[in-house]
Design brief:
The chain is mainly β. It folds into six domains: 98 residues, no CATH class; 78 residues, no CATH class; 69 residues, Roll (SH3 type barrels); 87 residues, Immunoglobulins (Immunoglobulin-like, Sandwich), CATH 2.60.40; 88 residues, Sandwich (Immunoglobulin-like); 69 residues. 7% of the residues lie in helices and 33% in strands. It has four helices and 40 strands. The strands form eleven sheets. Strands 12, 15, 16, 17, 18 and 19 form a six-stranded antiparallel β-sheet that branches. Strand 36 and strand 37 form a beta hairpin. The chain is elongated and about 105 Å long. The termini are far apart. The model has no long low-confidence stretch (mean pLDDT 92).
């Protein structure tokens, strides 16, 4: 199987069979049940190298396999192409390309280490939220490099990564971020290495409506380049002169914006390719159905339906058929309206996320809408709940911290509450709208349940509410400090430097000294709070 990433042609010799397949979506690593589907457009026998347009692949075979391919696969047949990984429990699905690595130096938050000598390193590390590219220069005056253990500890301690794999050294690596060189390549310039790793933000798709499928157009200049795909990066396959006429072909990416130009798939009397819009002008409109409204991009939260609608004109009657990832779909548990102008995707999950488009058919032919992507937003989730203080009763005057970790779509907001009431930053509290709340110099009136309300695009969640309990002289919690409380103190008395080990007496260490004893210092602190039965305890007691 030859893909466009291989090159502009197969480079084959004049023997065997090659079949050109137009794909509905890129060929990726998926099981056979999810195989991308294509249509065989051309069969070539003993004809040598075959051009590979950007949305096609070429099936190539020689010998007995060529005989089988020729007998089983014909022009117009629909074929599925699957590249499943076998012999591994890891589902490498929807993989477009892969790059091998060296040692896995950390996994599930544990640093495994490896090579003990410091060298330049290149690594990929990640956690549930972020992917990191790491380049470590080495063997130079500015950097000695890292051992594998040092690399793992760096990724764990500074990046909070959970997994990491080392690539092939680091001396050959060049790291560029937003066009700026970030490391010191050992050669003084970028080394001619074929492998690379790229991270980018996809731009929103733009498509022109200057022409429609079936329109007749002509070229407007002396030299007009026809290419294998929409963009100047694709190989030029022909040069058309002025006033050459072509028909705009139906394609869900017709009019796509690439390399600062809009592109159209054209048929110049049998020579088919892509030409930029600035080289074309309209001669006459075609008689195929025309879309006046294409399906919009949809982003929905989990549990919410997504609807795609189109509007088309043309000679009646018009019929509609929706496709997902290039394959026809029908009404059922996940879809409604698959044969109408409005498709509803019912409570989509990541399985239904992807590309949708509509085919409208009339007496004169079929036209395909532009594709629209459905994205299921990330649900709001609390990954780490606030935990109660390490000790059941916190000494008065201590600072107490509660922390939360959450993920979700868009910007997350946090609001800490005590007993269900919103808190604000003050001398008592800090971080009330962050992931970490600190209660300063706590006293008994700070006791209560502390929780955080997390809000993101796809919902609001309220965390657990761990209870803060402060050491108090009101041992029986009846809101006074009286003889009953003193009796508890007497029963727990140990004397100086003798720790009180009974869990029931931990609260009797009123002064919260490090000796954890119950002595006359605790009695003195208790007596300062003694008020008698029925008298509300003083603040701080």
């Amino acid at each position: 199987v030859y893909t466009p990433q291989y090159g502009s042609t197969t480079g084959s010799v004049n023997s065997g069979v090659e079949e050109l397949v137009e794909m509905t979506r890129p060929v990726v690593v998926v099981p056979l049940s999810e195989a991308p589907v294509g249509t065989i457009r051309q069969v070539r026998q003993n004809a040598g190298s075959t051009q590979i347009p950007f949305d096609h692949v070429v099936l190539s075979a020689t010998g007995t396999r060529a005989t089988t391919l020729l007998a089983e696969a014909h022009v117009g047949d629909r074929v599925g192409i699957s590249f499943p990984f076998i012999g591994t429990p890891i589902p490498f699905t929807k993989t477009y390309a892969s790059l091998g690595g060296g040692e896995v130096f950390m996994g599930d938050g544990h640093v495994w280490g490896g090579q003990a000598v410091r060298h330049p390193r290149t690594a990929i590390a990640y956690n549930d939220d972020y992917l990191y590219f790491v380049v470590v220069d080495g063997r130079s005056s500015i950097s000695v490099g890292m051992t594998m253990t040092e690399l793992g500890n760096f990724c764990k301690d500074y990046l909070d990564a959970k997994w990491g794999i080392n690539q092939d050294g680091g001396g050959s690596s060049t790291m560029i971020v937003n066009g700026v060189l970030k490391n010191k390549p050992s050669d003084g310039s970028q080394r001619a290495v074929v492998n690379g790793i790229f991270m980018g933000t996809p731009l929103a798709k733009q498509q022109s409506t200057a022409f429609s499928s079936g329109d007749l157009v002509r070229t407007t200049s002396a030299n007009n380049a026809l290419r294998l795909g929409p963009g100047t990066q694709y190989t030029q396959i022909a040069t058309l002169g002025n006033n050459a006429q072509a028909t705009i072909l139906d394609h869900h990416l017709r009019g796509i914006y690439a390399k600062s130009i809009y592109w159209w798939k054209c048929d110049f009397n049998g020579t088919v390719g892509w030409m930029s819009q600035n080289l074309l002008t309209l001669v006459s409109t075609g008689d195929l159905p025309r879309f006046t409204q294409h399906p919009p991009v949809r982003q929905v939260c989990p549990g919410t339906n997504a609807a795609f609608s189109v509007t088309a004109t043309g000679t009646a009657p018009l019929s509609y058929a929706w496709l997902f990832q290039g394959s026809p779909i029908g009404d059922g548990a996940k879809y409604a309206g698959a044969a109408t102008s409005t498709l509803t995707v019912l409570t989509p999950t990541s399985v239904e996320a992807g590309s949708y488009r509509c085919e409208v058919t009339g007496p004169t032919g079929t036209t395909t809408s532009y594709s629209a992507r459905l994205r299921v937003r990330r649900s709001t989730q609390i990954l780490l709940q606030p935990q109660p203080p390490a000790t059941p009763r916190v000494p008065r005057g201590s600072d107490v911290t509660f922390a939360i970790r959450a993920v979700g779509e868009g910007t997350l907001t946090y609001r800490w509450q005590k007993d269900g009431v919103n808190l604000s930053d003050s001398a008592k509290y800090s971080g009330t709208t962050t992931t970490m709340l600190t209660a300063h110099s706590v006293d008994t009136y700070d006791e209560g349940g502390y929780r955080c309300v997390v809000t993101a695009t796809c919902g609001t969640l309220t965390s657990d509410s761990p209870v803060l309990t402060v050491l108090s002289t009101d041992f029986d919690r009846d809101n006074d400090v009286d003889q009953d409380d003193y009796g508890h103190l007497q029963a727990c008395f140990t004397g100086p430097t003798i720790p009180q080990a009974d869990p029931a007496c931990q609260d009797a260490n009123v002064d919260a000294d490090t000796d954890q004893d119950v002595d006359y210092h605790d009695v003195a602190a208790f007596l300062q709070c003694f008020v008698g039965a029925g008298v509300p305890r003083p603040p701080g007691c």
